[in-house]
Amino acid sequence: MDIDLQSDDNYSEWKQGRKAMKKRTDKNTTDNSSMKILEKKLFGASGKERVTILNELSGFYHLSDPVKAVEYCKECLDLLEIFPDRKLESRLLGDICWAYQNSGRYREAMEFGFKRLNLAVELKDRKEEASSYSRIGIVYWRLACYEDALNYHLKALSLFEELINRNGLAGTYTNIGILYFDMENYDKALEYFNEVFEVLGDAHDSKSILHISNALNNIGAIHEVLGNFTEALVCHRKSLKIREEQDDRKGISQSIINIGISLEGLGKHKEALDNLFKSLEITREIENHKTEAEALLNIGISYASLNNMEKALSYFKQCRDIAEEIDAKCLLCDSLNQISSIYERMSEPVKALDYFKRYRSLEKEIFSEDSKKKIIELEITHNVKSRIKEAEITRQKNKELAETNNELREALAKVKTLSGLLPICANCKKIREDDGYWKHLESYFAEHSEIHFTHGLCPDCLKKLYPELNKQ
Q: Which end of the chain is more exposed for a tag (fewer CB within 10 A), N or C?
């Protein structure tokens, strides 16, 4: 999870980024070609071969088209009932959870998140269990249910510590930091973002570098909120440099936007525009429409700061059009508000009022959707707690049943020991054991049962052995 605000860097770093982008473009072309080949193969594929192809295709569409990725994942899951692969099943459940939460389908996201968690517990896979806790925590974060989100992230943190998994710890520290960021507890957020550097130390693997880049970006976001734009600029430029070295084009475009925002905050409007246009170019090359709309919005803000109302209006409207197309309501709301403000500054009150009404209407709609999210969160929490309670009742019943079965098995073992034919002496009544030794009847029963003897005399024996006592 990355707070994805916006940023820039110097010209030499920009040139390095351009070289990296060309290599990535070539790779994307290869990926698209591979995807088409796989989709052709899928038509005639069956059995395990189809499982393999579906798995690969879901991976290709994981970022570009989550809806299609879910379709491939679900078909693959159905086939795994015939060709079991529990590890693959766990990964697919995680992918479906991720896709649903990104598309706002939180009920489904939570359902598949818990399916993955239950499977991880069943397989005793501690790493998958920790990852499942983290994924569920992210869904709760999306629902703005911070207490539940924090609880699940802390469970993940505990397991990653137990496993000494540094990247898992870094990711969890980031997730917890973002929770505190959203709760406007910036000191606590900063504390957790800094933990990323502590836990990773001098690690140089790609995942660790990504975590470090995100931590810098997120710390920069805190400085921006607090108005410390110089400190924010330093963080975003460091993040950009890492992302360029990693050939992360999406990250590069986002970092350059972040730098543009910091420069805008410092009043360096022309420098901000230079960086925002660089980001806009990249986002259009990689067809990242959401980030493109963000760049357009910030370009409009910079032009408005320079009192170039015509250009500001043009870029705000471009942002509006893209936001409508991709259904990015928050961006659309921001663009409508900015357009209203521009028309007011241009002394066109009718248009300003019209856009302001549209802005307010959409704002109410978003608020209504947030309320629906809260209702969904309450439903999910109720269902989860009910499932936990049912699971505890079932666990207790199973425990009692197991204890009863153990008692029955012990009793049955004793019954079997005393069943069958016993060789017994016709005269002294000793019993012969399997090893050939003869034992007194009392000793035999004491060893093979819970029976213990106490002695007395029956009336017949008393009469025979002690006639004088019998007369008395």
A: C
In three-state secondary structure terms, 130 is: helix
Of 188, 199, 40, 136, nearest to 381 by C-alpha is 136
CA distances (Å), origin 156, targets 132, 199, 319: 8, 15, 38
Measured CA distances, 447 to 417, 427, 432, 439, 453 (Å) = 10, 22, 13, 10, 12
Least confident of 2-6, 26-30, 210-214, 261-265: 2-6
DSSP 8-state secondary structure symbol assigned to residue 431: E
Is residue 134 packed enough to be buried (19+ CB in 10 Å), middle (13-18) or exposed (0-12)? buried
Which H helix or E strand runs over 439? strand 438-439
Instruction: Give the model confidence (pLDDT) of 371-391 as tens digits.
Output: 555 545 555 555 555 554 555
pLDDT in tens, 135-176: 999 988 888 788 889 999 999 999 999 999 999 999 999 999
Which neighbouring-strand residues pair with 385?
none
Q: Are 219 and 193 in contact (CB under 8 A)?
A: yes
